UniProtKB/TrEMBL annotation:
<dbReference type="InterPro" id="IPR036390">
    <property type="entry name" value="WH_DNA-bd_sf"/>
</dbReference>
<dbReference type="InterPro" id="IPR000524">
    <property type="entry name" value="Tscrpt_reg_HTH_GntR"/>
</dbReference>
<dbReference type="GO" id="GO:0003677">
    <property type="term" value="F:DNA binding"/>
</dbReference>
<dbReference type="GO" id="GO:0003700">
    <property type="term" value="F:DNA-binding transcription factor activity"/>
</dbReference>
<dbReference type="Pfam" id="PF00392">
    <property type="entry name" value="GntR"/>
</dbReference>
<dbReference type="InterPro" id="IPR012318">
    <property type="entry name" value="HTH_CRP"/>
</dbReference>
<feature type="domain" description="HTH gntR-type">
    <location>
        <begin position="5"/>
        <end position="72"/>
    </location>
</feature>
<protein>
    <submittedName>
        <fullName>DNA-binding GntR family transcriptional regulator</fullName>
    </submittedName>
</protein>
<dbReference type="InterPro" id="IPR008920">
    <property type="entry name" value="TF_FadR/GntR_C"/>
</dbReference>
<dbReference type="InterPro" id="IPR011711">
    <property type="entry name" value="GntR_C"/>
</dbReference>
<keyword id="KW-0805">Transcription regulation</keyword>
<dbReference type="InterPro" id="IPR036388">
    <property type="entry name" value="WH-like_DNA-bd_sf"/>
</dbReference>
<keyword id="KW-0804">Transcription</keyword>
<keyword id="KW-0238">DNA-binding</keyword>
<dbReference type="Pfam" id="PF07729">
    <property type="entry name" value="FCD"/>
</dbReference>
Amino acid sequence: MLKPVSAVNALVDALRQRVLSGEIEPGTPLPEQEIAAMYGVARPTVREAIAALVHEGLLRRERNRSAYVPDVTLADLDDLMLVRRPLEDLMARRLGGRRVEAAQAALERMALKADAPWSELVAEHMALHEALIEAVGSPRLVRLYNTLAAETRLGLVRLRDTYADREQLVSEHRALLDAIAEGDGRAAVAEHLSHSWGEA
């Protein structure tokens, strides 16, 4: 039973975790009445929580249809990487020779959470990449990158089986941060993105 005082936020967190862990499969409908009964909350609370997740891009809603998790296909992932690569290449060029403390902190949290639910690793992965983008100091780059955040998170759900050994995810990102700090970030970014999504 969720506490009424924070019912919407609690429900948003609970549903987000289920989506990002892969527990709710793409295309699965989320009827408001069923969600309300499952979590012991009122339907307006469910409606507000679903609206928040639709705004985040983690759910999609169409006319006369329950909200559902959109399916990010392999073709979608290829197109996503097509757009992400130049943004992260720009990041690597600007940050070459620097170590970004916030990205390093996200990496260390990721390492500590290697056995945690996949949704928590997704959160730290996103925090790491977003910290790198923000360190460039360009508000427009941040805005562009943020438009891809929801699809990137949903794409990472698809990768959970690729990273059965969670330490591989940690070691890849440690190598990426080391390469950027050493001034070799552009090649590392290209390899990192191609490697990760090519095995989806």
